[in-house]
Design brief:
With 224 residues, the chain is an alpha/beta fold. The protein contains nine helices and five strands; from the N terminus they run H-E-H-E-H-E-H-E-H-H-H-H-E-H.
């Protein structure tokens, strides 16, 4: 094969790959988490399931499955997390079809929490927030909670439930938490509970307890 033919072949291959990636851009998801382990670990299970699904749908010679879903456990919080997400979004060589921040209210001020959510939405970044913590979302798989208890009380309740199921003590960074919740609890029940807790308005800090993690979970589950 001459140099001209080789060049044309490489141009065709690059063009084919770009077309394949472009067609799949709407499915590209960036998930940037406040936590470094608990939230990334939870969503990594869904990422792995989706990669198995995509493997049957795409030509692996043209598309790298790792390009579909990226999870970043930044260790940053609220407003700094939104800025970090915006940088990652802007630096992406292949655009993301969906960009999400995942963070908790925890002990941050009402102003910090509300501002982070509002600023993210202005930049077309979705937010899977929890007030106070993602353990509320976990707990909603087993029971409806409408009283504004603390994140420590969520953990106490999860400990009681997990021990009753023979799973031992709930740990923040425990492996397979997504599968545990889905197998022993009910994801549909959790989604219904989370929807009941949401109220209209922009004072998200006053919505306690409340979580929008279900929105990201629904997106990923629908892709499956």
């Amino acid at each position: 094969m001459g140099s001209d033919d080789l060049h044309k072949k490489r141009v065709r291959e690059r063009k084919t790959r770009k077309e394949a990636v472009r067609d799949l851009t709407p499915y590209r998801i960036l998930i940037v988490c406040e936590g470094e382990k608990t939230e990334p670990g939870y969503f990594k299970t869904l990422k792995d399931l989706l990669e198995v699904k995509f493997r049957d749908l795409v030509d692996l010679k043209k598309v790298n499955l790792k390009e579909f879903i990226e999870i970043d456990g930044s260790g940053k919080n609220t407003e700094s997390l939104v800025r970090h997400t915006l940088r990652l979004k802007g630096q992406a060589s292949i655009p993301f079809g969906h960009v999400w921040c995942v963070f908790d209210k925890d002990s941050f001020t009402n102003e910090q929490f509300n501002s982070a959510i509002i600023n993210a939405e202005k930049e077309d970044i979705e937010v899977a927030w929890s007030n106070e913590a993602i353990e509320l979302w976990f707990l909603l798989h087993f029971e409806y909670v409408s009283t504004g208890i603390t994140r420590y009380q969520y953990i106490e309740k999860l400990n009681y439930i997990f021990k009753g199921l023979g799973l031992g003590k709930y740990e923040k960074n425990m492996d397979g938490i997504y599968n545990i919740l889905k197998e022993y609890g009910s994801q549909d029940f959790a989604i219904g509970n989370a929807k009941k807790l949401l109220r209209d308005g922009f004072n998200y800090a006053d919505m306690k307890p409340a979580t929008t993690v279900f929105k990201l979970v629904e997106l990923l589950e629908n892709m499956l």
